[in-house]
Design goal:
By secondary structure, the chain is an alpha/beta fold. The protein has helices at residues 29-45, 58-62, 74-83, 96-99, 103-114, 136-146, 165-173, 177-184, 200-204, 291-310, and strands at residues 2-4, 18-21, 49-55, 88-93, 119-123, 127-128, 134-135, 149-153, 157-158, 161-162, 188-193, 209-212, 222-230, 237-246, 257-262, 273-284. The radius of gyration is 22 Å and the shape is elongated.
Length: 312
């Protein structure tokens, strides 16, 4: 995948694409519908298939101290988009210069003059430009004026409502990963490198892989049945497991993280990239009065996780 971060310095191989524009947080089914149209347009026009997104997320840029909300990191998003066939990712630096462009300037300077995009696809709720003053209809009018095609797609929904990153965050906060998966088209995944922890799990007989949740939306704290994909190294493969998300109150207040016990696994995966898919929420996080009580509960959690995953 070609990744372009500064539209002013795109080379010849990175111009003239058909592109979907948006934040694509989660790459849910609504996003995938947009990608389907971009893919077809790229085939029709004989050009690359691309996605334009922004880093940092504009919401992070304008409110850096607000609670973390992202469903996936920039790296996880790029990986997911590549798997869906995107060959050009315009991951534009969202800074003072870009955020100050009016809708007209964005269309002229970025889309038309610098990247020479042939076609742009957006959702009906798309807004852009300084103060989010530009709409999907603005984009369509500017495309007609400047010579690039524009497709505006209706939002994807079902009887439960519109598929959106906000709705997915709400489902995860409520402990309903199945509802999130319904909108995503896949299990919600947390991708990160395994970090060194306090080795308490090993001492308890349940060694865990520890993942940071920094910058990500926090799902409901508690225990989950999970699928674990080790993405690299000698232990690469898919496994079942039980994970705990939270701040580990039995051991005092700690920075929230994810700890996953991988079933029937033995090996060193420190600093290895893994992907943990949240399948089912089993119980909320609890504080235990003794390590003996904790060990008994961990054993019961693992039995329950195995039973849940065996049915899938």
């Amino acid at each position: 995948m070609h990744i372009v971060r500064d539209y002013q310095f795109a080379n010849e191989a990175d111009i003239g694409a058909a592109v979907a524009i948006g934040n694509f947080d989660g790459v849910h089914l609504g996003h995938q519908a947009v990608l389907d149209v971009v893919r077809q347009k790229a085939i029709e026009l004989g050009c690359p298939m691309g996605v334009m997104t922004f880093e940092p997320h504009p919401r992070e840029y304008f409110a850096p101290d607000a609670p973390a909300f992202r469903l996936m990191s920039a790296e996880a998003k790029a990986h997911r988009l590549a798997k869906l066939g995107v060959t050009h990712l315009y991951q534009l630096n969202f800074n003072a210069a870009l955020s100050s462009l009016s809708a007209r300037e964005f269309c002229h300077d970025v889309i038309h003059e610098s990247l020479k995009l042939k076609h742009v696809v957006v959702g009906a709720d798309f807004c852009f430009g300084k103060g989010r003053a530009g709409t999907a209809e603005t984009l369509r009018d500017m495309g007609a004026e400047l010579g690039f095609g524009v497709t505006i797609l209706p939002l994807v929904s079902d009887k439960k409502g519109v598929f959106s990153s906000t709705a997915i965050r709400t489902a995860l906060s409520a402990g309903h990963p199945e509802d999130a998966a319904h909108m995503l088209g896949h299990w919600h995944r947390i991708d990160a490198r395994v970090e060194h922890g306090d080795a308490r799990g090993r001492d308890l007989g349940y060694p865990t892989a520890n993942l940071s949740l920094s910058g990500l939306h926090l799902p409901k704290f508690g225990v989950y049945a999970v699928w674990v994909d080790v993405l690299e190294g000698p232990h690469e493969g898919s496994y079942q497991g039980a994970a705990s998300i939270g701040d580990r109150p039995t051991f005092g207040m700690n920075v929230p993280n994810l700890e996953v016990f991988i079933f029937d696994f033995s090996g060193d995966i420190y600093d290895t990239e893994i992907s943990v898919a949240l399948v089912h929420f089993q119980r909320p996080e609890l504080k235990f009065d003794s390590l003996e009580e904790l060990i008994i509960q961990i054993e019961a959690d693992c039995v329950e996780s195995r039973a849940i995953l065996a049915k899938l």
